[in-house]
Amino acid sequence: xxxxxxxxxxxxxxxxxxxxxxxxxxxxxxxxxxxxxxxxxxxxxxxxxxxxxxxxxxxxxxxxxxxxxxxxxxxxxxxxxxxxxxxxxxxxxxxxxxxxxxxxxxxxxxxxxxxxxxxxxxxxxxxxxxxxxxxxxxxxxxxxxxxxxxxxxxxxxxxxxxxxxxxxxxxxxxxxxxxxxxxxxxxxxxxxxxxxxxxxxxxx
Length: 204
Hints:
Order of helices and strands: HEEHHHEEHHHH
Number of strands: 4
CATH architecture: Up-down Bundle
Shape: globular
Number of domains: 1
Helix content: 40-55%
Largest sheet: 2 strands, antiparallel
CATH topology: Four Helix Bundle (Hemerythrin (Met), subunit A)
């Protein structure tokens, strides 16, 4: 398993745990935009947002196997994937995605995304960032005072994205960086602040 796939599995474990906290009317919560690009730049109700994540995740095994969306069928994972058991559905889909990720040994293998072809390691960076942001935003919306990113995951995300932060910023994935506070700054905070996201919004 390549390094980026290891981070993916850690990100999945974190996000699945956060989604497991959602109860009842929480599903109607409005989540701030994850990115500043068309299609992702508006607040979205939590259930449709989690369903979109489940759909993206359902594609992971096919993407990592080198299959294109046309080969698989572009509408294969359309519709409501959460059903009457959202948590169970998320777990099942995540387990399949993680199993596929653990088999990846070639970081240069081609992944045929809907928006172009990418090396597997670059595909992982795209979806790893999305999972970290989504977990953070859901946790904050649910009232958590602590960002859910564990330090080992945050370290890997910071080390892998900070040197190319301007590239992520140029396409609307990262925002303008937020200055570090004085004193010790955790890996989690370094990653989020570099990405332009407030790790402690309740302290404002």
